[in-house]
C-alpha cells in the first residue's frame, strides 16, 4: 500500500544520488514537508489536477547533458486538454506519427522551475515521484512529500482524466454503469478506495493491472458530484452529463426490447457512444 509521504530511504535521509549528466555533478537534494517550500503562480486546484495528469500520462526527465523536461502524451481526442495545459504552462505540442496521440513537451528552465514548484507535493505515483526527485535535484528545488488526499482534491480528477473510464456494460441482461480507474500498481489506485469507497480487483489481462471501480447508484452519483465540482477536462467528462438520463431510462426499464421506451434507450446509447469518438 502507498503511504502518503513515502520516499525511498535515501530520500528520507535528505540525500539521493543520481547518475552524472555529462560534466554536471548532481548534488544531494533536500526533502521538505510543508507548504513553506512551495512557490508557484498557479492556482492550487490547477496544480493538483496537473499532478494527477502527470501521474497518469506524464513523465519528467533529465537528459544526459543535465537538461530537464516534462512530457505528457494523450490520445487525439484529448487535444483540447493538452492545449489548455500549453496555455497555462507554455511548451509545445506534436502529433505522434502513427500513434493517434499528441505529445505535450516543456523544456525551458524557467518553465520547468515554475511547473515543478506547482506540482511539488502533489505527485504521488511510484515512478513519477522518483522522476520528480531527480528533476528537482537538478533545479535545486527541495522535494515536498505527497500531501494527504481528501474528497476536495483535484488530483483525483486529473488522474481520472489520464487513467479513468465511464462505461455501460450488460450484466445478467441488465445495464451496469461503472466509473473505473486502472493502473499497474495497487498503491496508485488505492487512494480512490480510501476516499471514495468502491472496490479494487486485479485483472490479469494486458500483463495485469489493478482496477478501482464504483457501480452502485449511490457511489456513481457521489462521484458525479465530485467531478462537477472539480477540474475535469478530458473527453470522458461529456458522459457525466448523461448519467442522470441513464438512471431515468433505467428506472423506466427502457433497456428491455419490449419496452415502449426502448427507442429512447437506443437513442441514448447512440449518444453515449458518439461522445467517446
Automatic annotation (TrEMBL):
<feature type="region of interest" description="Disordered">
    <location>
        <begin position="1"/>
        <end position="35"/>
    </location>
</feature>
<dbReference type="Pfam" id="PF00961">
    <property type="entry name" value="LAGLIDADG_1"/>
</dbReference>
<feature type="domain" description="Homing endonuclease LAGLIDADG">
    <location>
        <begin position="157"/>
        <end position="246"/>
    </location>
</feature>
<dbReference type="GO" id="GO:0004519">
    <property type="term" value="F:endonuclease activity"/>
</dbReference>
<feature type="compositionally biased region" description="Polar residues">
    <location>
        <begin position="9"/>
        <end position="23"/>
    </location>
</feature>
<keyword id="KW-0496">Mitochondrion</keyword>
<dbReference type="InterPro" id="IPR004860">
    <property type="entry name" value="LAGLIDADG_dom"/>
</dbReference>
<feature type="domain" description="Homing endonuclease LAGLIDADG">
    <location>
        <begin position="50"/>
        <end position="138"/>
    </location>
</feature>
<dbReference type="InterPro" id="IPR027434">
    <property type="entry name" value="Homing_endonucl"/>
</dbReference>
<protein>
    <recommendedName>
        <fullName>Homing endonuclease LAGLIDADG domain-containing protein</fullName>
    </recommendedName>
</protein>
Amino acid at each position: 500500500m502507498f503511504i502518503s509521504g513515502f520516499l525511498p530511504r535515501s530520500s528520507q535521509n535528505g540525500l539521493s544520488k543520481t547518475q552524472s549528466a555529462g560534466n554536471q555533478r548532481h548534488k544531494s537534494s533536500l526533502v521538505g514537508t510543508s507548504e513553506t517550500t512551495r512557490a508557484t503562480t498557479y492556482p492550487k486546484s490547477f496544480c493538483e489536477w496537473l499532478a494527477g495528469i502527470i501521474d497518469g500520462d506524464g513523465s519528467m526527465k533529465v537528459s544526459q547533458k543535465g537538461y530537464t523536461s516534462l512530457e505528457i502524451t494523450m490520445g487525439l481526442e484529448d487535444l483540447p486538454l493538452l492545449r489548455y495545459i500549453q496555455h497555462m504552462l507554455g511548451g509545445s505540442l506534436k502529433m505522434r506519427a502513427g500513434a493517434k496521440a499528441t505529445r505535450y513537451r516543456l523544456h525551458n528552465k524557467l518553465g520547468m522551475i515554475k511547473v515543478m514548484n506547482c506540482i511539488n507535493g502533489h505527485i504521488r505515483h511510484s515512478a513519477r515521484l522518483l522522476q520528480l526527485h531527480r528533476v528537482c535535484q537538478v533545479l535545486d528545488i527541495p522535494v515536498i512529500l505527497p500531501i494527504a488526499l481528501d474528497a476536495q482534491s483535484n488530483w483525483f480528477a486529473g488522474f481520472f482524466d489520464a487513467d479513468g473510464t465511464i462505461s455501460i456494460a450488460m450484466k445478467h441482461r441488465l445495464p451496469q454503469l461503472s466509473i473505473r480507474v486502472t493502473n499497474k500498481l495497487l498503491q496508485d489506485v488505492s487512494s480512490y478506495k480510501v476516499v471514495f469507497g468502491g472496490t479494487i480487483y486485479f485483472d490479469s489481462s494486458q500483463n495485469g493491472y489493478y482496477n478501482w471501480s464504483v457501480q452502485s447508484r449511490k457511489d456513481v452519483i457521489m462521484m458525479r458530484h465530485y467531478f462537477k465540482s472539480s477540474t475535469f477536462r478530458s473527453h470522458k467528462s461529456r458522459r457525466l452529463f448523461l448519467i442522470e438520463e441513464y438512471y431515468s431510462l433505467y428506472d423506466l426499464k427502457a433497456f428491455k426490447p419490449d419496452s415502449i421506451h426502448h427507442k429512447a434507450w437506443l437513442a441514448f446509447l447512440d449518444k453515449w457512444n458518439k461522445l467517446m469518438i
